[in-house]
Amino acid sequence: MPHIAIKPLADEPGIRGALTELLIETVASGGSVSFMHPLSSEDADAFWQDSLGAAARGERFVLGAFAGDDLIATVTLLLKLPPNQPHRAEIAKMMTRVAHRGRGVATALLRAAETLAIEHGRTLLVLDTAVDDGAAPLYEKQGFQLTGIIPEYALKPHGGLTGTMIYWKRIGAALAA
User: Fold this and answer.
1) Per-domain boundaries in the chain
2) What is the pLDDT of residues 79-125, one digit of tens each?
3) Which of 8, 15, 24 is nearest to 58 (CA)?
4) CATH number belonging to domain 5-125
């Protein structure tokens, strides 16, 4: 894997535009990340404006993976959860540019998100991924455990229903328990 820099993202010039392009590409290529194809740049930009605003408030981290100056992947670590769940965080919106898939970028992002979760006192990570064309092998390789599958959970970006696979992983202090 070429050198990849991973860093938390903020709503800075160029960042939201790069995230918008990445989201549109992901949806167009069939990625099940809550949007339908075709996704307008206005809707994608509005999503990232909200997400980066939540990051600025400390409710989440939006991490970006860079090859040089190019944003090639992102993942979001959700920290703001209900009061009875201060011990957990959620992995969301894992996306890698099509041209950079299969090179270890998503693995590096997952590890960085897990480290941040531990640093913020979390002992449990959860996530979900689509049954059809989801990232289950990646998550399982990183130690996530499949809880179950909910059939016909969401529409695929190009139409038709897909199930979702629910995963969890104990991290940090929970490993010693």
Assistant:
1) 5-125
2) 999 999 999 999 999 999 999 999 999 999 999 999 999 999 999 99
3) 8
4) 3.40.630.30
